[in-house]
Specification:
This protein is α/β, with parallel strands linked by helices. The chain is built from eight helices and twelve strands. Strand 6 and strand 7 form a beta hairpin. The chain is globular. The protein starts with a strand and ends with a helix.
Length: 256
């Protein structure tokens, strides 16, 4: 897959829910001129509570550094879970540039604000203790999701996110997503930009919001998604979990 730009966020390396296996599969099949890491790459919140790290997480870091070494421009915009790296903004480490936010110029001349998005989350900004409580509840949902998918694998079925499905059934969560999208669209318009690209809420989306193109690249815990810009400036959301399910069905359809 040869594209101009790739945007990924919310890898949450250091948590049991991180789908580093799918991410490695994606990184092994993509080539790009520029890679944006749009926050929450490493989960500092979780690692401060209890250390959890394995070889696949190291492999993800190596894959990203290899891209930088081989000519891909890598821009890292820390989020709230990896906010410790915000102290390094303006530095370049192993070919990776750390920035608080970025303005991306697409191939067709349109300009986009690129940021993690937690700055526009009222819970994170004004009631951080609630964010920590929500994080714990979310961890519980992800543990259930792990066991659910373990059972699916034993039965021969591909990955499917139970936690993402549950979140979409909650009306208040849907309202919060709408408020978040609207706030980011207003900020992009205030700056005279054509759109905004973010992460944070683990909800992949690409749609017009108040005349602004809002794009959220999703995450690699539930949706396993990425946003890519093609060489003509067109954007596409990739659902890597869905692509794996399609490959699974194709393998099932081919006679042994």
């Amino acid at each position: 897959m040869d594209v101009r730009t790739v945007f990924i966020s919310d890898l949450h390396l250091g948590t049991r829910g991180a789908r580093s296996d799918m991410l490695l599969d994606f990184l092994s099949q993509v080539r790009c001129e520029r890679l944006y890491l749009v926050g929450d790459i490493v989960d500092g919140w979780r690692l401060r509570k209890s250390w959890y790290w394995h070889a696949e997480f190291d492999a993800v870091i190596r894959a990203i550094l290899d891209l930088a070494k081989n000519g891909t421009e890598v821009i890292y915009i820390p989020g709230n879970h990896d906010e410790m790296f915000r102290e390094w903004l303006g530095l370049e480490v192993a070919g990776v540039k750390l920035m608080g936010e970025a303005e991306h110029l697409a191939a067709d001349g349109r300009r986009y604000l690129v940021m993690h998005g937690d700055e526009f989350d009222g819970v994170i900004r004004y009631a951080k203790f609630l964010a920590y409580l929500g994080d714990k509840a979310y961890d519980t949902a992800l543990i259930i999701n792990q066991w659910f998918n373990f059972a699916r694998r034993r039965l021969g079925y591909p990955y499917w996110s139970l936690s993402q499905w549950l979140k979409r059934q909650v009306k208040e969560a849907v309202k919060a997503i709408d408020r978040f999208e609207g706030a980011l669209a207003v900020e992009a318009r205030r700056r005279g930009l054509d759109g905004v690209i973010c992460g944070h809420i683990h909800h992949p989306e690409m749609r017009m919001v108040q005349g602004i193109l809002y794009m959220n690249d999703g995450d690699w815990v539930e949706s396993c998604s990425a946003l890519v810009e093609h060489h003509d400036g067109a954007f596409e959301l990739l659902d890597w979990a869905a692509q794996q399910r399609e490959r699974h069905l194709l393998r099932e359809a081919v006679p042994a």
